[in-house]
Amino acid sequence: MSTPARRGRPGYDLESLLLVAVKLFNERGYDGTSMEDLSRKLGITKSAIYHHVPSKEELLRLAVDRALNGLFAVAAETESFEGKAIEKLEHLVRGSVLVLVDQLPFVTLLLRVRGNTKIERAALARRREFDRLVTELVKQAETEGDVRPDIDPAVTARLLYGMVNSLIEWYRPRRGSAGTELADAVCKIAFDGLRTQ
């Protein structure tokens, strides 16, 4: 039995296709990127792309889900984390920074979606769900006396993640630099200012 011939340009699989698509979506915007643009960038035909995915929308879904799944994995880990709410919150922020560093192009795309498509609206709904988890942790930490009570917990949550999310604008990985150093810096700046003691 012979193996079927591989379609498309050698070296392109779904992962490498997705990486190029996300790079283009981040450069030109999702709406501003066509499958023709993607095929030109890859040097393959559109039909070779369709061998891997049924549509541009599927590429977007795969990309934003990768970022969201990373964040929700950290949130699930945080739920089982032993400790006070402030410690859980710090663990969640630290883990979120590590996800951002590890999945920078995917998180960048996630933070740029505006709700123009069904997939973008679903991603925004999941982001709001994540925001609610953060706000709940802030409320618990406030109840436990570890977070300043004079700031609305939703505002605190937004400010915390505003700082984390701002990393996509300026952070550029360097050889030899560890995401843990960046996570330590974010947590030091954020939590030394939040704690009541």
From TrEMBL:
<feature type="DNA-binding region" description="H-T-H motif">
    <location>
        <begin position="34"/>
        <end position="53"/>
    </location>
</feature>
<keyword id="KW-0804">Transcription</keyword>
<keyword id="KW-0238">DNA-binding</keyword>
<dbReference type="GO" id="GO:0003700">
    <property type="term" value="F:DNA-binding transcription factor activity"/>
</dbReference>
<dbReference type="Pfam" id="PF17932">
    <property type="entry name" value="TetR_C_24"/>
</dbReference>
<dbReference type="InterPro" id="IPR001647">
    <property type="entry name" value="HTH_TetR"/>
</dbReference>
<feature type="domain" description="HTH tetR-type">
    <location>
        <begin position="11"/>
        <end position="71"/>
    </location>
</feature>
<dbReference type="Pfam" id="PF00440">
    <property type="entry name" value="TetR_N"/>
</dbReference>
<dbReference type="InterPro" id="IPR036271">
    <property type="entry name" value="Tet_transcr_reg_TetR-rel_C_sf"/>
</dbReference>
<keyword id="KW-0805">Transcription regulation</keyword>
<dbReference type="InterPro" id="IPR041490">
    <property type="entry name" value="KstR2_TetR_C"/>
</dbReference>
<dbReference type="InterPro" id="IPR009057">
    <property type="entry name" value="Homeodomain-like_sf"/>
</dbReference>
<protein>
    <submittedName>
        <fullName>TetR family transcriptional regulator</fullName>
    </submittedName>
</protein>
<dbReference type="GO" id="GO:0000976">
    <property type="term" value="F:transcription cis-regulatory region binding"/>
</dbReference>
<dbReference type="InterPro" id="IPR050109">
    <property type="entry name" value="HTH-type_TetR-like_transc_reg"/>
</dbReference>
